[in-house]
TrEMBL record:
UniProtKB keywords: Membrane, Transmembrane, Transmembrane helix
One Pfam family in the UniProt entry: VTT_dom
Protein name, UniProt field: Membrane protein YqaA with SNARE-associated domain
Keyword Magnesium: no
Amino acid sequence: MKIFGAMYDKTMEWSKHRFAAFWLSFVSFIEAIFFPIPPDVMLIPMSMSAPKRALRLALYTALASTLGGMIGYAIGYYAFDLVQIYILKLGYQAHWQQAIEWFKAWGVLVVFVAGFSPIPYKVFTIAAGVMQMAFLPFVLTAFISRAARFLLVAKLAAWGGERFAAKLRKSIEYIGWGVVVLAVVAYFILR
């Protein structure tokens, strides 16, 4: 069954849309608060299809993610009791505990690590508010971390460019089904 090729083609088509940068920024913003899909899913194809815009797109992504992180911080600081149930329902309890332990041990440095961590970024933004971390160091560290990550991702994708996009398209079915298999295996192992 070939479904990933069509999804790949559609994603590459959307990455060239005139409002793609807006949607990339929007996804980056909401991902730092509640959205489960990281902006890399949009940044990579956009950077491959427009390598000259990759660094600008990474900057948009970092700025929007930092602004979203500020909202996540405010939620943790002012309204954690209202959203705590959702952390449990969404299955972030283990990630939450890990983030809190890291904040206790390393303070603001955790925000820098969070920009590269596989733990969802929203967990760290809300945890920073709950831990009442100093706001300005949080914002500065969040921006530096997110900018470093997204600049790296965008630059690597732009470096590959259209050539890499074409090679990736040839293997996308194998990659897609491989990810599905790994996700199922991880689900059963981590349960």
